[in-house]
Automatic annotation (TrEMBL):
The gene is pcnB. It comes from Polynucleobacter duraquae. SUPFAM superfamilies: Nucleotidyltransferase (SSF81301), Poly A polymerase C-terminal region-like (SSF81891). GO terms for biological process: mRNA processing; polyadenylation-dependent RNA catabolic process. The keyword Cell inner membrane does not apply. Residues 60-190 form the Poly A polymerase head domain. This is Poly(A) polymerase I. PANTHER family: POLYNUCLEOTIDE ADENYLYLTRANSFERASE FAMILY PROTEIN (PTHR43051:SF1). The lineage of its organism: Bacteria, Pseudomonadati, Pseudomonadota, Betaproteobacteria, Burkholderiales. GO terms for molecular function: ATP binding; poly(A) RNA polymerase activity; RNA binding. Residues 335-454 form the Polymerase A arginine-rich C-terminal domain. Keywords: ATP-binding, mRNA processing, Nucleotide-binding, Nucleotidyltransferase, RNA-binding, Transcription, Transferase. It comes from the Bacteria. Belongs to the tRNA nucleotidyltransferase/poly(A) polymerase family. Residues 435-466 are annotated as: Disordered.
Amino acid sequence: MITKFIKRILRRDPMIRHTAAHTSGAPKRVPKKTHRIDPDLLSKNAVKVTQTLQQAGYDAFIVGGAVRDLALGIGPKDFDVATNATPEQVQKLFRKARLIGRRFQIVHVTFFGKGQPEIIEVSTFRALLENAGEHVAENGRILRDNVWGSQHEDAARRDFSINAMYYDPATETVLDYHGGMADMQKKTLRMIGDPAKRYREDPIRMLRAIRFAAKTGFTLDAATRAPIAKLGKLIHDVPSARLFDEILKLLMSGYSWAAIQGLKDAGLHHGLLPLLDHILDQSADSQEANDFVRIALANTDERIQSGKSVSAGFLFATLLWPDLLNNWKKNIAKGISNIPALHDAMDETIASQSSGMVIQRRFESDMREIWSMQSRFEKRVGRYPYRLIESPRFRAGYDFMLLRCATGEKNPALGEWWSSFIASDPAEQEALMASVKNETGNSAAPTKKRRRRKAKVAVPSESAAD
Ligand code: ATP
Ligand code: MG
């Protein structure tokens, strides 16, 4: 014990330097028989990180959402570790460790195994805001924040009581600073401290409240919920990249439909994404759009919950599809031919989003590819189907088309035809193409050869082939 203390002083341990005024508020020690965390759900690498830090004389715990999920019996998607070692001290203990971040300096420790590398995020206990006065703006927003503190202070800086529990894999004990275990039992999501003050410090916490309520099925505690109606507008002061990341987390949480309903109930959806305004206002004429988005999101939730991947580009393509379809139809009604009408509609739909939260470029190109493929699924003769299958993003376009069939926008026979076509040998594919040759959209579609022949006799317009 004494050597551990001396070791700390020699290392100029941050805990020794900052905790003098904050030693009160001992946590509740929750034993295994109460928290029932299954050690098999732990990441071996996260355990390795806590062990290494503890063997070097530091305190180290698994913390945050991982403990919440473990206590709920869910395997966490990632693991965070909190420690009293400074980022530099952490970095020295691991081979693959990288210091990242400016506002919150943390260490990413990477482990390479069979599948994807696993990153364990290690953060140093943070001090209370009062100890970092000069870093807080007039409106209460946190600006800069690299003052290390005690574990007790660190717990008070976290958002919800169920996110402020610390698990020590060595003793299988949970340290519970803010009654997280009791709230878990009551199925309540409760903000630590004064909720209004905490939302002013970081308005993104309002979106986190809705996301966690949807994910856990817990109810927002009345005092946690109350200030949101008044403070919701502060969300628009959050930098758009951070807001975008949070919305993406919400949509990819596996509980997106419940979370969107939660946003709507809290009055938070306005101006986040123009399409959410559009869809959730549920005017009579948008019922069809609503159905499409609901089925698309349910499909996304199901994929995520069963461990399948979902691309953000695909997801945004579905959310904006009703709007795009509307624009596409309007353009055709104006006399623009099919494909140019679709491309104009894509530009219009994307432009309409820029008044709200901008969808990032990397997703925009995915969305355009998925959308532009849609008109090509109609053509099921000649070389068209073969060319379409060869497109690099065919799978995403195909899944999207199946979704349109599932929602009733397209005849399910179209989806069935393509599913058979993909699974067939060349002779069967010929037969499939012959079976639809005389359907609308296909009779006018020439093979490349025929088109050339027609061109020789100077056909004035090729728009019929579009
Ligand atoms: P998940 O990873 O499932 O989305 P999480 O709770 O782990 O949920 P992270 O964003 O990974 O969420 O954050 C890890 C922990 O850091 C949280 O559990 C919480 O204790 C703390 N935290 C994160 N963001 C905030 C915030 N804006 N305000 C206060 N504490 C936060
Ligand atoms: Mg997390």
